[in-house]
Amino acid sequence: MCTLDGCGVNDHLGPPPKATDEDRRLFLKGAVALPLAVVLADPILAHAAGSMLEPVTITTPGGEKMTAEIAMPATLPAPTVILIHEWWGLNDQIRAVAAEYAKQGYIALAVDLYGKPAATTPDGAKALMSAVDPAIATEKLQESVKFLKNHKDSTGKVGTVGWCFGGGWSLNTGLAADVDAVVVYYGNVKKTAEQVSTLSAPLMGHFGTLDKSINKPMVEGFEESLKEAGKTDYQIFWYEADHAFANPTGGRYDAEDAMLAWERTMGFFDTHLS
Q1: Is residue 12 part of a domain?
Q2: Of 160, 7, 205, whose CA–CA distance to 89 is shortest?
Q3: 39 is a domain residue
Q4: How far is the C-alpha of 218 from the C-alpha of 46, rounded, in Å?
Q5: Residue 90 covered by a domain
Q6: What pLDDT does residue 114 have?
Q7: Looking at residue 69, what DSSP letter applies?
Q8: Which of 85, 154, 157, 161 is found 20 to 30 A from 4 (Cα to Cα)?
Q9: DSSP letters for 152-182
């Protein structure tokens, strides 16, 4: 997760990806496809890409309701993926990523653990993140897994992926529910061997060597916990990058590492969800 001190506030490593006016015009007409990073970095394009999602309601046994948004692929039935947002909340960038997952052949469910409009400032994100009740969030994610497993167009396979705040919750979902693959992007993985003992799915983690919060000691401690619990089906990848390196709207975006992490994630899901 992002720390309470902030997320993605450094200067760019290079210029952020940018669409030309002509690219934007053709994309909005549906005449061209653009790289995901270009779409995510452009608020107009991200909003357009995410507009294909449809709202669904997830209800916990205790009656708590969560509005999530779903993107459907062209070919059905299909495997499914839960996408868990950064500390900002469910915004157009996450919706656009869900739309891209659908293009890749997955039923993509973008959950909203806040139930409020996404934040646009660090203070707003901090307040939203701090208000999350872990027990209720866990139930919402468990019910999201059940929803996808039982979806009429699902193959029954469910993966989870999250970034920052959502990276930690992607792991938590794998600990609390029967899923088939877990991907963590620079999320909080501070867990004991006892806590990870319930993990039954293969796991992939993406972490930055320059990340001061989700750092080497934390991740290496996580690996030790996995080993102590007898878990062997995991892959941890390190990048010479900072926290939030895969987010082209943030100040720590690293295009090369973001693409490599994306390719590894797609290959991982293809292997375990097909």
Answers
A1: no
A2: 7
A3: no
A4: 33
A5: yes
A6: 98
A7: E
A8: 161
A9: TTEEEEEEEEEETHHHHHHHHHHHHS--SEE
Residue 53 φ/ψ, nearest 5 degrees: -75, 150
Q: Specify the 3-state DSSP secondary structure of 185.
A: strand
Which two three-digit tokens encode residue 73?
């692929």
Residue 77, preceding peptide bond in cis (omega within 30° of 0): yes
What is the distance, to the nearest Å, from the Cα of residue 91 to the centroid of all Cα atoms in its chain?
A: 12
Across 61-87, average pLDDT: 97
The answer to whether position 45 is within a domain reads no
pLDDT higher than 70, residue 16: no
Q: pLDDT tens for residues 137-193? A: 999 999 999 999 999 999 999 999 999 999 999 999 999 999 999 999 999 999 999
Q: How far apart are CA 49 and CA 96, in angstroms?
A: 5
Asked if residue 162 lies in contact with residue 137, where contact means CB atoms within 8 angstroms, the answer is no
* Neighbouring residues of 15: CB distance < 8 A, sequence distance ≥ 6: none
Range of the domain at 151: 54-273
Q: pLDDT value at position 187? A: 98
For residue 194, give both structure tokens: 């006892």
- Sign for the pseudo-dihedral over CA of 174, 217, 236, 6: positive
Bigger pLDDT: 14 vs 120? 120
Q: Which residue has the tokens 């653990």?
A: 113
> Domain holding 217: CATH number?
3.40.50.1820
Q: What angle do CA 43, 48, 50 make, to 5 degrees?
A: 95
Domain count, the chain: 1
According to DSSP, the residues that pair with 163 across neighbouring strands are 185
